[in-house]
Every structure is written in structure tokens, then in C-alpha cells.
Amino acid sequence: MAQIPWDIKDFNITEVCVKNGIEVVTFPYYRIMQCIHIILCISSVILLLWVLTKCRSKLTFHYNIRVLFMSLFFASLLHASLMAMFNTYQLVLSFTYTSPCDVILPRLFYMCIHLPYNFSILWIEGAQLVMILERMIAIFYVGRYERCTKKLGHSLLFLSFFFPLTELIWAYADETFEAPQISCLNTPVSRTKQINILFIFSIVCHILAVTCFVVVFLCHRQRSRMAHTLTGRFQFSENMISSRLLITLSSIQLVIFLTYSVAIMYLRISFDPVKGSAPMQKSNIMSAYLVPFYTILLPLITMFFLARVKQTRRSDIQSMVQVKSTGQEGWANYATQLQQQWS
């Protein structure tokens, strides 16, 4: 994450506030990126709330994946709300400040936004990972998973909260937040190492999880063609539908997080504190922060998915109920009916 490479105790206060505060927040490029983020985040909040209130009943998945999906939505809603709040506050402040140091964020305000902001990112990542785990369990136990209780969903939901919270406590233990900050995206200098470790760990886990899930999904698609019973076919079909949505969302999230990480690494390495422009660097960091794009794509993709899945599900059901009566599959269907009749 980005950080402010200065200590206010070593310089003239006003000079530092002008160089590392006023020049940044009043930079046109920085303001443009703030406006873009505000529009994206407010739009995300509206769309996320719309899906949560109007479209939630249309997610006719198993309870376990549905509750985890809602967890992902609430994590994205938290992130979008915090980003909209902070960017609006700072944009207004950049026009209304009376003294240069007014743009330095109050310590309590910075803590109240920065900590939940980081938690929301870790929560999004955690929700995606437990959703992948749940779908893999559903695929392996196809045919029996419909009888699975809600305990699995509740346990995974707890993990999606617990692990991000534990990671956040580990990263910020004993942090005093004394260093002045102009952005809630900035990480305290003393915590940069821990935050970098967390994000690298999360990205590696995400890559491994998505890779394993895609392999399992492809194998599952092959197995779905061998399903003989109507119940088995329907469960295979439902697993395929929810898995496609999850693969799409996970892939987009992975691309966004990787792009942001690579961009930040490049900006840090290439920036020259002596010759470089601090406002330009901060603006580039702001433009490289693509998570708001994910929070707006999440409800859009979900609504598009729901619009198509209804028609697809009807078509699948019609094809599944047309039980084949000839050949090997016909014999399997006939044998199943006899077994049910005599049992």
C-alpha cells in the first residue's frame, strides 16, 4: 500500500503540509481520479443495495453458497461506502481548507476509515476463498449435498469474518497511528511490511484456489454428462451455474488485485524522491487502485447472470425431464424406476 515518506517532526510544519499535502490534494489529476472513484463507489453502493433488496430472492442456490454470496456483497458494500465517504471528504476539504495543514487527516478519522477499509479488502478476499471452498465441497458431494445442513454455511461464514479480523489484528497490533496522513489508503510506515505480507499471502492463496477450482469444475463438467437420474442432473446443472458465476467473479478480482499490486510495486521502484513529482506519484497510485471497479462489476455481473440464468434453467429442466428410453442411458433410467417401484 502507499505511504507518506516524511516525518513532520523533521521539517517546518507548514512547508511539509504544502509539499506533501496541499500540492497533492489540489493536483488536477488527483482530483479527477477522486471524482472517478466517488462516482464508481456511489454507483456501487446503489447497485449493491438494489441487488440485496430486490434480487436476493432470485438467487435460488443452496443456502450455504447463498449466505456466503451475501457476505461478499456486504464486504463490497462496506468498501464502497468507506471509499465514497473518504474521497468526498477529502475532495471537499481540498477546496475549503483555510491553512495548509488542514488537509492532514485527523488521527481518529484516519483510524476509523483506514482499519475498516483494510478489513473490507481482506473480507472480500476471504469471502471469495470460502465460496470456492464451499463449491468444491458441493461438487465432490454432488447427489448428497442437498441434504447438507446449514451448519457448513454458518461455519464458512464465520471463517470469512474471523480470518480477515485476525489478519488485521496481527498487522496493526501496537500501532499508534501517530504519523500524519493525507489519505486513508496510506499505510503507516511501521506496518508496511505486515500489510505487504498479508496481500501477497492472499493473492497466492487466491491463485491456488482459483486454479484448483477451475480444474475441479472441468472434471465436474465431464462427470455431469454421465448423470443418469433427474436429481443428479439437476444438481450437476445447479453446480455448473453457480460455479460459472464464482469463477467469473474470482477471476476478475484476481486480475484487479494483481494489477494493483504490480502497479504499486512499479511506482515505488521507479519513483525518485528528489526528481520525481509527489503529486503525480500519488495520482498514479490513485488511478492504479482498481478495487472500486470490482465493487461495481459485482452487482452488474450478478444482475446480468440472474437475467440469463432463469431462461437457462428453464431450458435445462425441460431437457432433463425428457428421460431417454433407449440405449444404455434408457436402460439405466428403466432400472432406476424398477428399483424405486420395488423398494
From TrEMBL:
<dbReference type="Pfam" id="PF10292">
    <property type="entry name" value="7TM_GPCR_Srab"/>
</dbReference>
<keyword id="KW-0472">Membrane</keyword>
<keyword id="KW-0812">Transmembrane</keyword>
<feature type="transmembrane region" description="Helical">
    <location>
        <begin position="287"/>
        <end position="307"/>
    </location>
</feature>
<feature type="transmembrane region" description="Helical">
    <location>
        <begin position="195"/>
        <end position="219"/>
    </location>
</feature>
<dbReference type="GO" id="GO:0007606">
    <property type="term" value="P:sensory perception of chemical stimulus"/>
</dbReference>
<dbReference type="GO" id="GO:0016020">
    <property type="term" value="C:membrane"/>
</dbReference>
<dbReference type="GO" id="GO:0004888">
    <property type="term" value="F:transmembrane signaling receptor activity"/>
</dbReference>
<dbReference type="InterPro" id="IPR002184">
    <property type="entry name" value="7TM_GPCR_serpentine_rcpt_Srb"/>
</dbReference>
<protein>
    <submittedName>
        <fullName>G_PROTEIN_RECEP_F1_2 domain-containing protein</fullName>
    </submittedName>
</protein>
<dbReference type="InterPro" id="IPR019408">
    <property type="entry name" value="7TM_GPCR_serpentine_rcpt_Srab"/>
</dbReference>
<keyword id="KW-1133">Transmembrane helix</keyword>
<comment type="similarity">
    <text>Belongs to the nematode receptor-like protein srb family.</text>
</comment>
<feature type="transmembrane region" description="Helical">
    <location>
        <begin position="245"/>
        <end position="267"/>
    </location>
</feature>
<feature type="transmembrane region" description="Helical">
    <location>
        <begin position="65"/>
        <end position="86"/>
    </location>
</feature>
<feature type="transmembrane region" description="Helical">
    <location>
        <begin position="155"/>
        <end position="173"/>
    </location>
</feature>
<feature type="transmembrane region" description="Helical">
    <location>
        <begin position="121"/>
        <end position="143"/>
    </location>
</feature>
<feature type="transmembrane region" description="Helical">
    <location>
        <begin position="29"/>
        <end position="53"/>
    </location>
</feature>
